[in-house]
Design goal:
- By secondary structure, the protein is an all-alpha fold.
- Among the domains are: about 60 residues; about 45 residues, no CATH class.
- Helix content is about 65%, strand content about 0%.
- It has a two-stranded antiparallel sheet.
- The longest helix is centred in the first third of the chain and has 50 residues.
Length: about 300
């Protein structure tokens, strides 16, 4: 046996722990199942970061908008309840303010129907009509849609536009579900509009059909009341037509106005006819009683 000591085999130089961790790429230090995700992030990190920031901002904006709308909706609901307890002369003003401030909220949109009813009661039919038509156009899924369309027909009738009222009323009747609480009054309006358009016999026939459907209900007295109105109704005789000059003479102006002023008066009347949709039969004549001063239904026994 040799006394010479054996020299151990040379070993690879070992790096320090800190040195070895630094030199090993991050991808290799990750578990194998996370390495593909790391490679994707390395290739698309900037785009993904931007998308995450934009998404976070959108979410924050959406959350703030919902909270703000909820706050305004609560304020609108309280204001509507307050308006319902006000006298009529103040209720309209309050509802106008609610619609102006909170019209973008759900309670604010519904307040426009209450405002239309208040305007109708104030005989501001054109404004009420515009509100009902706007609501019906923009809120086709609202539970108040039928009320808006009912209001449209009522306003057209009040304005004396019986053809338009009849069309709106028939469209509403066709869309109302069976048993809807509005159906009886819409059917009664149908009979009344037929009467106002000059066909008394057809109006009574339509009322008979309505009466048969609601016999024995709370609507039966209303049907009988309408029957009396139709039976007593006397259509107005055709009104005499006068030229602008003849009308001014009738009102006592005589020759005080020059012919040029008469011509301007005619022009104004023509313009009004155009704005009214061309309902007048002649552009150069006007009716004595243009402004309806009494209800077209004569209930004198």
């Amino acid at each position: 046996m040799s006394d010479k000591k054996q020299t151990p085999a040379p070993q690879p130089a070992a790096h320090s722990k800190a040195q070895s961790v630094k030199d090993i790429p991050l991808e290799e230090r990750l578990p194998e199942d996370l390495q593909p995700l790391y490679r994707w992030w390395k290739a698309n990190g900037n785009v993904a970061s931007t998308a995450l920031c934009v998404g976070a901002l959108l979410f924050a904006g959406y959350t703030w908008h919902n909270r703000e709308q909820s706050r305004k909706a609560a304020l609108a609901g309280g204001a509507i309840r307050e308006a319902r307890n006000l006298p009529p002369d103040r209720r309209t003003e309050q509802l106008e303010d609610i619609v102006a401030k909170y019209g973008a909220t759900k309670p604010g949109r519904h307040a426009s129907i209450e405002l239309a009813a208040a305007l109708f009661a104030d005989e501001r039919y054109d404004e009420a009509l515009a509100l009902c038509q706007k609501f019906a156009k923009s809120n086709s899924s609202s539970p108040f849609l039928f009320q808006a369309r009912d209001g449209e027909a009522a306003c057209l009738e009040a304005l004396g536009k019986y053809d338009g009222a009849a069309s709106a009323n028939e469209a509403l009747l066709a869309s109302l579900p069976a048993g809807h609480y509005l159906r009886p009054q819409v059917e009664l309006r149908r009979a009344r509009l037929i009467m106002l358009k000059g066909d008394k016999a057809a109006a009574l026939l339509a009322l008979e059909e309505t009466g048969a459907r609601y016999a024995g209900t709370d609507w039966e007295p209303r049907v009988e009341e309408m029957r009396g109105v139709i039976e007593r109704h006397v259509p107005r005789a055709p009104r005499p037509k006068l030229s602008a000059t003849e009308r001014l003479n009738l009102l006592g102006f005589g020759d005080a106005l020059k012919s040029s002023n008469i011509a301007e008066f005619d022009d104004e009347e023509d313009g009004d006819d155009e704005n009214d949709g061309g309902d007048a039969e002649d552009d150069d004549v006007i009716l004595i009683d243009e402004i309806p001063d009494v209800d077209p239904v004569d209930e004198t026994p």
